[in-house]
Amino acid sequence: MTTPTGITSIIGHAEIAAFADSNINLQHSKVIEYRERVNSLRDSLRAKIAADPAYAVVRVLNAGSLAKGSALRNTSDFDLAVYLRPGAVPEDPTQLASWLVARLKEARPQLEDDQFELRDHCVSILYKDGRRVDIVPILDSGDGSGDGDLIRKDTGAKVRTNVRRHIEFVRVRKARCPVHYRQVIRLLKWWAVQQKGRDENFRFKSYFAELLCSHLLDTGTDFSSYPNALASIFTYIQVTGLTTPIIFEDYYQRSAVPDSVHGIITVIDAVNPQNNVMRDYTETNRRAIVSAAGAALDAIDYAEYVPKRAEAVAAWAEILGGQFRG
Ligand SMILES: Nc1ncnc2c1ncn2[C@@H]1O[C@H](COP(=O)(O)OP(=O)(O)OP(=O)(O)O)[C@@H](O)[C@H]1O
Ligand SMILES: [Mg+2]
Q1: How many domains does the chain have?
Q2: Measured in angstroms, how far is the CA atom of residue 64 from the centroid of ligand 2?
Q3: What is the pLDDT of residues 40-59, one digit of tens each?
Q4: Same domain, 96 and 211
Q5: Domain boundary among 132, 167, 202
Q6: What is the reported pTM?
Q7: String of DSSP letters for 28-94
Q8: Same domain, 297 and 187
Q9: Around ion ligand 2, which residues have CB less than 5 A away?
């Protein structure tokens, strides 16, 4: 990277990109393998849907980071959204998980009983390699739009969502910024993983990383140099303290966001103006993010000018973890 003073940094875009390829990104062959795994599950359910128009499962869609291309090498949970016909499924959300297991077994008899893990409001299928597929139930709105009520894994509360639009939101930005947009999201997620390793209370959810990067991309940040893109993100976090609401107008107007959903951090779901995805972040959580971003920014600044290679590598290892060797 060439600094404003014309000095070339020891660690620049090429080094960060190479590290991302070797350590952060899910290898392409694995992406294909895991997508095939999730797709075969999806296709079994789709065959059931095709065979019986009254089937309780309406639609099955790949969701989350595997579908979006934002999964990390160590991502162990993949997401499959299963849209259900309200009225054809148990009303009691606590019974939904076991009902869902029965449908999954019907569709995939080869799955073993001990592969299923029943959680309160969702079902996970565990595979021998330690990866899992989370089956996320969504009550379909019935109008064919892809709108539905997601049943939150933790509380069982219903949240309006639209998986197609979540995927489209990423796809539109990927088309505008083909490689770098999703790479910067993965770099930021990776940085957050390092912070979580140091502080078990550190919170930084994946969807937040995606929306934060999307906001910066939309507002003109250049993602073509990874050190500069990361510096811009950390600067944004420091300057705003994350107290400025982040709102997108892909699917609704800003004015549709009610005041009541504003929180300590406000980042509104791209498809649902009533859903502040950071609703449960506390002031302590916010400060921890701002402070970690400040430290990351200091490390990037230091690495930019330091003449010794070992020191530049050590500074970047603060951000990217001890595996980073330049
Ligand atoms: N609080 C939320 N409100 C609405 N939608 C959400 C929320 N959290 C996640 N999602 C949606 O569900 C998807 C799956 O969530 P998840 O937490 O597994 O993130 P992910 O993008 O798959 O990343 P990871 O690789 O960490 O699993 C997200 O990509 C996002 O589209
Ligand atoms: Mg996921």
Answers
A1: 2
A2: 5
A3: 999 999 999 999 989 999 99
A4: no
A5: 167
A6: 0.96
A7: HHHHHHHHHHHHHHHHHHHHHHHH-TT-SEEEEEEEHHHHHT--BTT--EEEEEEEE-TTSS-SSHH
A8: yes
A9: 64-65, 79
